[in-house]
Automatic annotation (TrEMBL):
Residues 36-286 form the Orn/DAP/Arg decarboxylase 2 N-terminal domain. Its EC number is 4.1.1.20. The gene is lysA. One of its GO terms (biological process) is lysine biosynthetic process via diaminopimelate. The lineage of its organism: Bacteria, Pseudomonadati, Pseudomonadota, Alphaproteobacteria, Hyphomicrobiales. GO terms for molecular function: diaminopimelate decarboxylase activity; pyridoxal phosphate binding. It comes from the Bacteria. Pyridoxal 5'-phosphate binds at residues 241, 280-283, 380. Specifically catalyzes the decarboxylation of meso-diaminopimelate (meso-DAP) to L-lysine. This is Diaminopimelate decarboxylase. It holds the Pfam family Orn_Arg_deC_N. CDD domains: PLPDE_III_DapDC. Gene3D superfamilies: Alanine racemase (3.20.20.10), Lyase, Ornithine Decarboxylase, Chain A, domain 1 (2.40.37.10).
Length: 427
């Protein structure tokens, strides 16, 4: 479930009227509900603990890396899954202890690995033999031995869209199944790494438990094989990717159904394995804890279409343009029951046709300056935003009860222009 609902005819985030945020912070603006983030984390962590006993949850920060979000999760005991040095640094800045940080990603540089090893992070998820060599070299030069796991590509593709599938052997991620034993043996003689186990992550926005089960069953068999060969396998990191409903009705109650089904499957498949399990949920924790609040700039009626031009654009929320993603659109002013609907093409101001949020969407009649919310925008929304078309980096707000705080002020034009440097030859 989430904590966005109509009260007295206006959409609220917890106790705060979105009209107030729009008036005080401006639009477009992301609005996150602390209660929703906390609820989803607690549900997930409790279910995994119950299913697995030893379970570590590392929130995948690339879904939403706002410091306020990280602090909120850190206070609940969450670890963080990172995919760049910037993310490791941001996790530290949010007060996450190094021993709760995992570093994943297919292209870690020498500098990034050095920073991670110096910081003393919990685990590096190694994605290739080349990276194994580099990590050992870097760590041993620092007189350290870094704990690490091999990310294995299970050759199981799944996910809501081709661009977010990662577990097929056609994808760039991980080492292949056949290679793991050999790499384990090689690593045993390397001075800078200590291999603790395995990791897998098959994709994002996966709603079919069967896909996870197929991948995890292969991993469990692999753990058995490796142990049989005398290798040490203490950890199995099962990745993230559990999907969320985007087509939520206004009375939507998310409930723990999918989380419970996932937990039951994990418990069953890993029963008796005697490893510590890790999880890296991102979208599941923050996805429907956020919305993007935007204002109608113009109505542009055409003979065959009705365009609704809003002040948010693909640089603020790229998911529809990039993944053909669906977002519910809720007017902030509660529509009267039975009020007539119009089919709108909802578009942003950016100068390309890809800047389209939806086409032919039936919505209550809207007019200039009305506020609308793109729902379920807490994951891969602000974290993927940019300044394309020299638009200001979007603002972010966190709500807690009747209170709210700006957790990323809207960028200023001075900041936008000031990041560039003129070449000396113009002086
Ligand atoms: C993106 C990613 C995640 C999180 O995926 P979600 O679909 O947001 O849960 C977890 N682990 C790794 C390695 C990732 O790249």
């Amino acid at each position: 479930m989430h904590h966005f609902a109509y009260r007295d005819g206006s959409l609220h985030a917890e106790g705060v009227d979105l009209r107030r945020i729009a008036a005080e912070v401006g639009t477009p603006v992301y609005v996150y509900s602390t209660a929703t983030i906390e609820r989803h984390y607690k549900l997930f962590a409790a279910a995994m603990k119950k299913a697995a006993g030893k379970a570590h949850v590392f929130y995948a920060m690339k879904a939403n890396g706002n410091l306020g979000v990280l602090k909120t999760l850190g206070a609940l005991g969450a670890g963080i899954d990172t995919v760049s040095e910037g993310e490791v640094r941001k996790a530290l800045a949010a007060g996450i202890p190094p021993e709760k940080i995992v570093f994943s990603g297919v292209g870690k540089s020498e500098q990034e690995l050095r920073f991670a090893v110096e910081t003393g992070i919990y685990q590096v998820n190694i994605e290739s033999e080349s990276e194994l060599d580099l990590l050992s070299k870097v760590a041993s030069s620092l007189g350290k031995r870094q704990e690490a796991v091999f990310r294995v590509n299970p050759d199981i593709g799944a996910g809501g869209h081709a661009k977010i599938t990662t577990g097929s052997s056609e994808n760039k991620f991980g080492v292949s199944f056949e290679e793991v034993g050999r790499l384990y043996s090689r690593a045993a003689n390397m001075p800078g790494v200590r291999i603790m186990g395995l990791a897998v992550h098959i994709g994002s926005q996966i709603r079919e438990i069967d896909a996870f089960e197929a991948a995890y069953s292969k991993m469990v068999a692999l753990v058995g094989d490796l142990k049989g060969e005398g290798h040490r396998v203490d950890r199995l990191d099962l990745g993230g990717g559990l999907g969320i409903p985007y087509d939520i009705p206004k009375t939507f109650d998310y409930g723990p159904g999918l989380i419970e089904a996932y937990a039951e499957m994990v418990g069953r498949v890993t029963k008796g394995l005697d490893v510590e399990l890790g999880f890296e949920p991102g979208r599941l924790i923050v996805g429907n804890a956020g919305l993007l609040l935007t204002r109608v700039l113009h109505l542009n009626p055409r003979p065959t279409k009705q365009f609704l031009v809003v002040d948010a654009a693909m640089n603020d929320l790229v998911r529809p343009a990039m993944y053909e993603a669906y977002h519910e659109i809720w007017p902030v002013a509660e529509p009267a029951i039975g009020s007539p609907e119009i089919a709108y093409d909802v578009v942003g101001p950016i100068c390309e046709s890809g800047d389209t949020f939806t086409t032919g969407r039936a919505l209550p009649q809207l007019k200039q300056n009305d506020l609308v919310a793109f729902m379920t925008a807490g994951a891969y929304g602000a974290s993927m935003s940019s300044t394309y078309n020299q638009r200001l980096l979007v603002a972010e707000v966190m709500v807690k009860g009747d209170d709210y705080a700006v957790t990323r002020p809207r960028q200023s034009y001075e900041e936008l222009i000031g990041t560039d440097r003129l070449p000396g030859w113009f002086a």
